[in-house]
Amino acid sequence: MIKTVYFVPAAYFGDVKEFQLMERLTRLFEDHGLIVVHNVEEAQLIIAFGNSLTPNDAYKGKKVYLADEEKAFNDSKAVLEKALKECKPYEDYLK
């Protein structure tokens, strides 16, 4: 069962909107019993915003979900639900 989550924001989203999204997602995920961590090594689930995933050895052995930031901003709960249901091992993204 996933307990810890780490967010990887997209560079293109904009500082203010990104801050608002991260605050909103943190509250939502914590309200659902998840712990948002600020160190990728502590995470069981990585939610990366954008269309692709940059290779990163720190992601090995972790579950990953790619999310669209605009959709997450407009419907954060849907991202929570999809991330928990549709996340897959990081190694699957490398194939």
TrEMBL record:
SUPFAM superfamilies assigned: PTS system IIB component-like
Pfam families assigned to the protein according to its UniProt record, in alphabetical order: PTS_EIIB_BC_N
Keyword terms: Transferase
Any single GO BP term: phosphoenolpyruvate-dependent sugar phosphotransferase system
Single GO term (MF): protein-N(PI)-phosphohistidine-sugar phosphotransferase activity
InterPro entries: PTS_EIIB-like_sf
Name of this chain's protein: PTS system fructose subfamily transporter subunit IIC
